């Protein structure tokens, strides 16, 4: 347990190291980091905002000397899983969002080394400016979320590299005594090889730093997926809940037969899709504050949203995608309604046409088509906020302007990510297979 009488002395030492502006006391930290979407409250002892990775070792040594617990965050945008809040009271938050450097990039092989504060948007801008044909490993959490943080929490996405820690080839961390952890290959002078070969030599220890408190990770190397010749979205509907079990079995078959071509398939219920497209019916709730089934059905009809929606992505050459489409049509035959295959350009055209339709029908269809278009940009490796509006569905003041921040804006959200068994074919690489079906646009980091 922390000794509270040592906290002021620790803050004094940290101010000498970082400067007054980079060290917050308890009250300032509470105001800056205390909000969360889950409703959990924590007492914070302070916060540190370093701008140089070389300061981390001494920060940790000061914490050890004063027996003051630290809680490192990357950007703190872990929506629905705790945000920036520590797991216990009286911690000092170590905010690493100021470490924003892209340290290295292999333009031929697509391996990028980033610090904790590098976000999806920053990497997208870097790739665009250099004309590099690689995809950002996006999530539904939005463009202002950390790549490193999501990978260390073993995050999951819907682009070809679905397993985000599976794409990490190397990392560097500061241990509890302030010493630096490097992989054996890097210690032996093989830094270039270490970025490319995740297993290195000797025991594999990098996995100890995921979902743990064994060290503070200050950089990771991530293998990016090359931008394919074609990206195509799969969209289908289920008319009835009774079709869900069969649909899961068919989806499993598709994933088994088309590894590396199908990036993932997300099955979303009517509530989930409507939360991204329709206003919340606050004036039509029942006595328990829930949406009555008949109102939900009516909203589904108005916005053309069925009880279940399947959304997936195909990557590859035109010929490969065409062959995969035939396989998928056969696999979903008899259960899927409105089975569509759309490219990002097709989706933009559809949204534009829908906006031209008159009246409320055109407005509702236009909103649904616009959401679809943004979702397609996301799976094409373009980070955006298309999934974040669901956090605001019941928010009385709406989303406001500027970047969305559910914790700051007082949204309530607890993310539940269930798993169900899904056998992995022996030929499928682990970096492109999740081993299970789970929500693939999770709002994390």
What is the gist of this entry?
The chain is of the alpha+beta class. Helix content is 31%, strand content 18%.
Key structural traits:
15 strands; Vanillyl-alcohol Oxidase, Chain A, domain 3; four-stranded mixed β-sheet; 31% helix; alpha+beta; five-stranded antiparallel β-sheet; 445 residues; 18% strand; 4-cresol dehydrogenase [hydroxylating] flavoprotein subunit; FAD; Uridine Diphospho-n-acetylenolpyruvylglucosamine Reductase, domain 3; globular; Uridine Diphospho-n-acetylenolpyruvylglucosamine Reductase, domain 2
Task: Describe the protein.
- This protein is α+β, with helices and mostly antiparallel strands and 445 residues long.
- The chain has helices spanning 7-18, 26-33, 56-65, 120-130, 147-152, 184-187, 191-196, 244-257, 270-277, 293-303, 318-331, 344-355, 359-379, and strands at residues 23-24, 44-48, 70-73, 91-95, 102-106, 111-114, 168-174, 180-181, 216-223, 230-238, 262-269, 308-316, 337-342, 420-421, 436-437.
- The chain contains 13 helices and 15 strands.
- A hairpin with a 4-residue loop joins strand 5 (102-106) and strand 6.
- The chain is globular and about 65 Å long.
- GO terms for molecular function: 4-cresol dehydrogenase (hydroxylating) activity.
- Residues 37-227 form the FAD-binding PCMH-type domain.
- Its EC number is 1.17.9.1.
- Keywords: FAD, Flavoprotein, Oxidoreductase.
């Amino acid at each position: 347990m922390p000794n509270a009488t040592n906290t002021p002395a620790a803050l004094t030492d940290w101010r000498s190291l970082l400067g007054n502006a980079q060290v917050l006391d308890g009250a300032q930290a509470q105001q800056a980091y205390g909000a969360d979407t889950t409703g959990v409250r924590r007492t914070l002892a302070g916060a540190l905002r370093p701008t140089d990775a070389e300061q981390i070792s001494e920060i940790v040594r000061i914490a050890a000397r004063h027996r003051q617990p630290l809680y490192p965050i990357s950007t703190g945008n872990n929506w629905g899983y705790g945000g920036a809040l520590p797991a216990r009271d009286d911690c000092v938050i170590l905010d690493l969002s100021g470490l924003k450097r892209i340290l290295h990039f292999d333009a031929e092989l697509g391996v990028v080394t980033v610090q904790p504060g590098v976000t999806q948007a920053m990497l997208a801008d870097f790739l665009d400016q250099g004309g590099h044909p690689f995809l950002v490993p996006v999530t539904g959490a939005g463009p202002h979320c950390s790549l490193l943080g999501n990978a260390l929490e073993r995050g999951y996405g819907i682009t070809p590299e679905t397993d985000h820690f599976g794409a990490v080839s190397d990392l560097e961390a500061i241990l509890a005594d302030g010493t630096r952890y490097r992989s054996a290959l890097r210690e032996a002078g093989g830094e270039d090889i270490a970025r490319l070969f995740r297993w290195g030599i000797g025991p594999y220890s990098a996995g100890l730093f995921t979902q743990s408190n064994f060290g503070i990770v200050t950089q990771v190397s991530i293998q990016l997926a090359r931008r394919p010749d074609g990206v195509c979205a799969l969209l289908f509907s289920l008319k009835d809940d009774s079709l869900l079990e069969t649909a899961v079995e068919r989806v499993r078959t598709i994933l088994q037969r088309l590894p590396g071509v199908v990036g993932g398939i997300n099955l979303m219920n009517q509530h989930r899709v409507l939360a991204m497209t329709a206003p919340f019916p606050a004036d039509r709730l029942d006595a328990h504050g829930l949406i009555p089934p008949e109102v939900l059905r009516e909203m589904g009809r108005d916005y053309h949203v069925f009880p279940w929606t399947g959304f997936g992505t195909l990557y590859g050459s035109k010929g490969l995608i065409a062959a995969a489409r035939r396989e998928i049509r056969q696999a979903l035959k008899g259960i899927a309604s409105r089975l569509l295959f759309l490219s990002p350009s097709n989706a933009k055209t559809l949204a534009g046409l829908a906006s031209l339709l008159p009246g409320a029908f055109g407005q509702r269809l236009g909103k649904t088509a616009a959401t679809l278009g943004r979702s397609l940009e996301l799976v094409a490796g373009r980070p955006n906020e298309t999934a974040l509006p669901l956090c605001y569905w019941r928010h009385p003041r709406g989303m406001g302007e500027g970047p969305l921040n559910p914790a700051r804006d007082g949204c309530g959200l607890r993310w539940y990510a269930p798993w169900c068994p899904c056998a992995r074919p022996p030929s499928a690489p682990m970096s492109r297979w999740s081993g299970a079906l789970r929500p693939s646009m999770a709002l994390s980091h």
